[in-house]
Specification:
Layout lengths: L1 H24 L6 H12 L3 E3 L4 E3 L5 E10 L8 E12 L1 H4 L6 E7 L2 E2 L8
Antiparallel strand pairs: 1-3, 2-3, 3-4, 4-5, 4-6
């Protein structure tokens, strides 16, 4: 019985240490310029993230983003193609152990999408 208590205490300490390591060492906001640059390079559109990125740990590991907008290409009536108040992206934990990232849940709140097509499609 004493062995089970010690094993549980070690596992709990490892989980707490991992959460502290992730939150104190990795500054998610340092990735914001890279994200914006990558989206612009891939799509030619401007991505804006007005709120700070933050971690979420319950019910699973994820990232919270807010105030996101993606511009339309030039020549369209509306400036923004996509505006989202809040995005929560949670990853599945099991694939992380094999160095794979799988989105477990993607929650969008306050989504506004302006889809406009030109005459040539």
């Amino acid at each position: 019985m004493k062995l089970i208590k010690w094993l549980f205490a070690i596992i709990a300490a490892l989980c707490v240490s991992l959460i502290l390591y992730i939150t104190l060492i990795f500054d998610l906001n340092s990735f914001k310029p890279e994200l914006v640059e990558l989206v612009e390079k891939q799509t030619g559109r401007e991505l804006q993230i007005s709120q700070d990125l933050s971690w979420s740990f319950f019910p699973s590991l994820g990232i919270d983003l807010g105030g996101i907008s993606l511009s339309n290409p030039q020549g369209f009536d509306t400036n923004m193609m996509l505006e989202v108040n809040t995005v929560v992206a949670s990853v599945a934990l099991q694939p992380l152990l094999s160095k794979k990232i799988e989105i477990e849940q993607l929650l969008l709140d306050g989504v506004e999408i302006n889809l406009v097509t030109t005459k040539d499609g």
